[in-house]
Amino acid sequence: MRFRNINFYKEQSLIIFMKIESFANSFPLENNKLKGILVIIDGMGDLPNKQIENKTPLEAAETPNMDFLATRGEMGYMYPVKPGFVPESDEAIVSIFGNDLISSTRGQLEARGTELKLTRGDLALRVNFATIDSLKKGNVLDRRAGRTLTTAEAEILAKALNKIKLPVKFVFEPTIQHRAVLVFRGGFSDNILGNDLAYIQEKSQNPDKIKFCKPLDDEENSLYTSNIVNEFIEKAYKVLDKHPVNEERKRKGLMPANYLLVRGAGIEPPKLKLYKKWISMNYMPLEKGFSKTSGMENFSFDYPKFKKLDAYENLWDGLRKACKFSIKVLKKNKKRADYAYIHLKETDLPGHDNKPLEKKMMLEYIDKTLFKFLRKFAPPNKIKIVVTADHSTPCKLKSHSADPVPVLFYNDSIPKEKKFCEKEARRGTLGRIMGKDLLKKVGFVR
Predict the structure, then answer these.
(1) Beta bridge partners of residue 44, listed in sequence order
(2) What is the CA radius of gyration of the chain?
(3) pLDDT digits over 380-424, tens only?
(4) Which among 161, 413, 420, 421 counts the fewest CB atoms within 10 Å?
């Protein structure tokens, strides 16, 4: 008896599987309106790392469900803003949704992601609780106070900061972990440079030394505004450095949250393209503010309060809740919107902390929860899925980089074995994409 080549049987099995899958997909479970889902995994892009056998966290991760979507789709690589540009999260998101960078500011978007009410002329700034050695020495020891500032501590410190006496009205609002928003009420200029220089494109500046805010033009109001902000920051240090909360933190060997780093000054309401047929599932102030300003119906949840000193325990609580919440919202709202936007923040933090194993595990968790659901949810309902990142945060660099990010576009095409990772995405049929072109490229907008 003559045996056929084993590849013949593999090919026949694949053809049979494709016919069965096509037949099943021709009978959707329910009539639905949802056409596409955009999932942005914050800081997912990375570089090969010795800690994980010279692979990236995405390449090293076991992600069978994302790989399933890649097998039935296309891949490419994207520069969120443009080649050579190191984007902040707000710049990347603004660009990916087809806006110019001048359309908004980080401070305005973050403030609009809180319950604060803004009027034209209010100056909004994004803030980090940070740690310095002293005003005299001016060394920034940690931009995030060691990532150990609890929610209760932040709220107590904010209460003290809101008692500072200034010739203008202001409000200081803590948000999540080390983050906060600062708003000065009245007619100010936003043509100022904040004192947090970690993300500016000019690398000649030393981000490990404290700086003063400064005006970016010769206008009197710009000088006045920068002086007011500098006065607040100096008075804030005096309040924070000897505050009982920070005295107790120092006694425990923790970094005191004794300094404020501000950036993203903005007074004008963001002028963004509207996406009224979209829903979003976002829980961080920036992404909430962006979604609301873009006309999306945003679904959110209260982020788990940071009670213990393990920052990553808090991050894992947040990630678990975010994945579970996103699945719930998609199930309930698939007939109400054309497109959905999900942004998962937690994967960015291991990049900043040089923890590739932690990043790998987070990607695996996202895959076995959210993407396990999407793998079953999308095909019968004829829903397209795009998976990408807002920027690369390579662990070995501990910061954002200009490296492109991988893109996965699931469109239920003919199966072809693929692994979703940076290396394979570079070889993908989607090719090179600029952030502003992504949604048009995949047909999510015209």
Answers:
(1) 392
(2) 23
(3) 999 999 999 999 999 999 999 999 999 999 999 989 888 999 999
(4) 413
